[in-house]
Amino acid sequence: MVVAFVAGSFAACHEAQEHVAPAVNERDSMSMMTSYGVSTLISDSGVIKYRIVTERWDVNLVRQPSRWEFVKGIFFEQFDEKFHVEGYIQADSAWYYDKERLWKLRGRVRIRNVNGLIYTSEELYWDGLKHELYSNVFSRVVTPDRTLEGTYFRSDEHMEHYLVSNSKGSFVREDEERGVTTPSAAAAADTSTVTLPVRQAPVRHARQSNP
User: Fold this and answer.
1) What is the mean pLDDT of residues 78-93?
2) What is the pLDDT of residue 4?
């Protein structure tokens, strides 16, 4: 009786089928490399131009198009030929499409260049082939002498020549009698390009009281 029970148990174990979940083959969603706590230098044409600092860096060469992903935020420092800092770029998240040399920055994008210009937006594209920056969402540009806001932005990589359209802004105007340049002359001397209408701050003149 015991022998029959043991034989039956062995047969039952022998005939049992193993339940295994199917293998995960979705390579399209898997990164080829993931790095944490990254601080690295990036060169362009053999010259070091940028430092990238990020909490997480994923490299995915399987997805189409292939890309680098910085979902935990990114911080760039930009250098000149003598390795002096020219400015910085930061964003909450970023994607770099290596074949197109295209950066997509999203969430609290902020740029500062060597001239003190500050750019802020929620989304910005950086085209490495055309060497330009552009955005189709609300953008704000602040310089030492003016502030501009618009829903379309385009600029060179150094933020020295830029275009803001569908914009509004304000200028500080001074009296020509004081020997200070007026906004119209300043705009003519400036290398930036602005598409108006621009809202200009009113000029107030003090009244002179009669003796």
Assistant:
1) 90
2) 43
Taking the model in full, what pTM does it have? 0.66
Q: Indicate the burial class of 162 (C-beta count within 10 angstroms; 0-12, 13-18, 19 or more).
A: buried
The average pLDDT across 11-19 equals 49
CA dihedral 99, 36, 46, 60 (to 10 degrees): -10
CA distances from 77 to 48, 51, 71, 114, 190 (A): 11, 5, 18, 11, 25
The Cα–Cα gap between 37 and 55 comes to 5
The per-residue DSSP string of 121-165 comes to EEEEEEETTTTEEEESS-EEEEETTEEEEEEEEEEETTSSSEEEE
User: How far apart (Å, rounded) are the C-alpha atoms in residues 144 and 87?
Assistant: 16
Task: Give the distance, in angstroms, between the CA of residue 126 and the centroid of all CA atoms in the same chain.
Answer: 7
Q: What is the pLDDT of residues 127-141, one digit of tens each?
A: 999 999 999 999 999
Which residue has 């198009």 as its token pair?
Answer: 65
